[in-house]
Design goal:
The protein is an alpha+beta fold. It has a domain at about 55-108: Arc Repressor Mutant, subunit A (Orthogonal Bundle), CATH 1.10.10.10. Helix content is about 50%, strand content about 15%. The protein is built from 6 helices and 3 strands, in the order H-H-E-H-H-E-E-H-H. The chain has helices at about 15-20, 25-35, 40-45, 55-65, 85-90, 95-105; strands spanning about 40, 70-75, 80-85. The protein has a 3-stranded antiparallel β-sheet. It starts with 13 loop residues before the first helix and ends with a helix.
Amino acid sequence: MVNKKIKVSEKTCSLKEVLEVIGGKWSMPIIYILSKGKMRFKELERSVEGINTRMLVKELKNMESNGIVTREVFATVPPTVEYTLTVKGKKLLPSIVSLHKWGQEFTV
């Protein structure tokens, strides 16, 4: 059997760009949880096991800047913030589910 090297140029490699968008440790669990619908910050924080507040804020800001989630702030005291997946974020779901199934088969 001959091993073939795959030639990948940084200019043409979209996988690198994808990993910059969703490559954080917590991004995929957050996206998966948000697939169930709109969630407030504290609900989301309780749903993502093992994440701390600072890291959740960082991941959500990154995903918001990349168009994966939307953040809606309501003028209440204290402020209420809800997060939802964008169309772009929802299109990631089949890939995340596939990776989840792969992980169950080969890593558990």
